[in-house]
Amino acid sequence: MPVLVMKFGGTSVATLDRIARASKRVAREVANGYDVIVIVSAMSGKTNELVGWVEETSPLYDAREYDAVVSSGENVTAGLMALRLQEMDIPARSWQGWQVPVKTTGAHSAARIEDIPRDNITAKFAEGMKVAVVAGFQGVSPEGRITTLGRGGSDTTAVAFAAAFDAERCDIYTDVDGVYTTDPRIENKARKLDKIAFEEMLELASLGAKVLQTRSVELAMRYKVKLRVLSSFAEYDPEAGTLVCDEEEIVEQNAVAGVAYSRDEAKLTLVSVADRPGVAAAIFGPLAEAGVNVDMIVQDISEEGRTDMTFSCPVGQVTRAEKALTAAKEAGQINFHDLVADTNVSKVSIVGIGMRSQAGIAAKMFDVLAREGINIKVITTSEIKISVLIDRKYMELAVQALHDAFELEKAS
Amino acid sequence: MPVLVMKFGGTSVATLDRIARASKRVAREVANGYDVIVIVSAMSGKTNELVGWVEETSPLYDAREYDAVVSSGENVTAGLMALRLQEMDIPARSWQGWQVPVKTTGAHSAARIEDIPRDNITAKFAEGMKVAVVAGFQGVSPEGRITTLGRGGSDTTAVAFAAAFDAERCDIYTDVDGVYTTDPRIENKARKLDKIAFEEMLELASLGAKVLQTRSVELAMRYKVKLRVLSSFAEYDPEAGTLVCDEEEIVEQNAVAGVAYSRDEAKLTLVSVADRPGVAAAIFGPLAEAGVNVDMIVQDISEEGRTDMTFSCPVGQVTRAEKALTAAKEAGQINFHDLVADTNVSKVSIVGIGMRSQAGIAAKMFDVLAREGINIKVITTSEIKISVLIDRKYMELAVQALHDAFELEKAS
Known about the structure:
The structure is a homodimer. By secondary structure, chain A is α/β, with parallel strands linked by helices. The first copy, chain A, has two domains: 3-175, Acetylglutamate kinase-like (Carbamate kinase); 259-405, VC0802-like. Helices cover 33% and strands 25% of the residues of chain A. The first copy, chain A, is built from twelve helices and 18 strands. An eight-stranded mixed sheet of chain A has the order 3-6-2-1-9-11-12-10, with helices on both faces. A six-stranded antiparallel sheet of chain A has the order 14-15-13-16-18-17. In chain A, α7 runs antiparallel to α8 and α11 (361-371) crosses α12 (395-405). The model of chain A has no long low-confidence stretch (mean pLDDT 92). The interface between A and B is large, with 37 and 37 residues.
């Protein structure tokens, strides 16, 4: 039998009614002839509650215990959905990560899946089980302790199972009906995409579009897993949602596929840093150790052996970054005159594989922003995306203007 | 290092504050020189919530999934307490049943512990871990699925660990400060016992005193585990609580140690049953299959080949019992004229190993009840207990009168 992987996020299993509703979708795919592997998240809110308890108990918690605690929510939904399916006369059972086993690295709270042996689940399919309901987000370390994959990790669980079981498709059921050209809450002309290339989705995911965990898109791209994002609340429609696929499968393509944003960014500038080899390492080493996620980096042109170094990171990490840099300065590892933080910036990005073959996209983006009077503070580019840091107050305006200028409301 | 087992029930770990408080008690025992194994229940209310979800999802649930779901509450408290202890600089880690592993039978929801290998936890103690926080109530079946031990099963987990690790003592922390001569809510002269014999505790537990799970007392008796019941809310006192121990360790002993009751009992009478060999089996076989917990059984003197058969069971099981008996009658397996249910009865029992050597205890009990005008409906006795079924409205009066008559408020 062909295998289908279906993943239901927290809002899709938030109540017993919703679990029942999701189970109906599973039943339909069983009727369609699939052996189904369902990956479930915890009921929405549960994981946050557990994380809150852990942080209150131990601010600098042992990640092994964090994982043991926060993984429990998925076990509950997995069991409940198996029960619901059994009530519908569908042979189903739940699987916790260690039972499959989902073998991961020992990097607790941010573990990576290393292997998912098919034996146990395949044997049960052979015995007549139609649905394996697997607790997402969790695995087991080489030491036999429970690991978790980081927030949103159930997406990654789903893609990893699809890859391991050569699934025909991996359907990610969520509270939106697909991937949009941009956030419809900001731009009401935002259009749902029928298809999007892996590379584009990867950029959008890492740029702040929260529809899929970045790691899951990476995995899907690597293992050529057909990934579909669709709503668990809409009526059944086999063509629904957005298919994330190889770019070859996308015939027509706008130069720009979407506009992404990340609201709460900060820009830090080290003023007058001694410009000599190794200085970047001296700066970004301590930041990495302090767990600061440095995103964009810009170095000014050097004058008289000194330069300004600017980087961006999430607003919530500014204090940590300042501490790390001040400590490094006091330890004599780096030398700068001043450290200036601007915590009122946002990042806006345009993404599209069409950029590769089409010139002038960057120029057009800068022109659009200039015409709206929006000052660009930092720019970074890759082959298929351009990101700018701007004042937060212009973020919505920038998203709308770019969506308009690149005519994203129109299918190509 | 000597090993101490400490068990904290649901009310003792109901909040983060209470977990912190329980952790302080653990820390004190570590300071006293013990390697400590802590057994935790779920935060109070959590297991009931999970059971409610399971029952709503699937009234005739698959017990394997029930176990997978309801065992999750203990995992949360185990992790949180390990974190709390780490915050107090005590090397601690959590263990889920399958990690130890706590090997049980495959009788889901009512599994029995078969083996607790010491290797894993002992190795960690040798590495410097001072506290193993184990999720109570759960284990793993020969098939690698999660099992649970039945409600109150964490007591059994605690005693089984104490036996497996030759613990010096097993301290059961709960919301009462020990075992009383009777329920203090009914008789305000009820006195806390300093010691009670295993046999007595076993009778009290099965007769409705909810302080310990019956199975845990059985295990403690079999493996000679010194069991102490004490309050997690009282101030620290090394002599606190009630010690459940061998009767040889109890020097002075009242004839009656305590008065137990079970409020919601029912009495069913099969009127005019054909009295021939095999009839009892024909009656109680179907009841057992229907899951009815038959307690007391009385058969009237036979007249003209027919007799009345009376038995008691919990009120909640009367409908099930009636259905099973009616079905058996319709199937021609048994024959009776009428089935009469009295759902307004309670059971009151006196328990004491002193009864073995002291005559007249039963006569005194019946006399006390007669003087209060309380009619006895059914009587059963064992070597160390006498139980009577009486009208529910007299239950409190019977408990008080018996407590008074046997002078249980006075230590012997």
